[in-house]
Design a protein that fits this description.
By secondary structure, this protein is mostly helical. It is built from six helices and no strands.
């Protein structure tokens, strides 16, 4: 389910050619909706997910006042450090966030 988000390197693209106002693939909108809901109840999980997939990472760095963050070539350790959490906590929160998305989107 997250493959589309990963394939697009964290960018969420809506629409397509032909002038249709419907999203080309609603999965992006559904994932973003889940992440926004997650941010309301568990902001750290949402932020870890956004940094992991470089999806809206600039919002995270702006809100958390993280200076000089560049997602290019950054691993999980550096992402965890930027958030001020341990690598183990980062991995746990990422797993929780992925599980939440999968559960809310339902079976494949």
């Amino acid at each position: 389910m997250l493959a589309k988000l990963i394939d697009n390197k964290g960018e969420i693209f809506f629409g397509g050619s032909g002038g249709s106002i419907e999203p080309a693939d609603c999965i992006e909108a559904r994932i973003e909706s889940c992440v926004v809901a997650m941010a309301a109840s568990d902001p750290m999980c949402a932020d870890v997910l956004r940094l992991e997939y470089d999806a809206g990472w600039w919002r995270v760095t702006e809100r958390r006042c993280i200076k000089g963050y560049d997602p290019r070539g950054v691993g999980q350790f550096e992402k965890a450090a930027a958030l001020g959490i341990s690598l183990a906590t980062y991995k746990r929160r990422l797993s929780e966030a992925r599980d939440t998305i999968e559960n809310q989107l339902g079976p494949k």
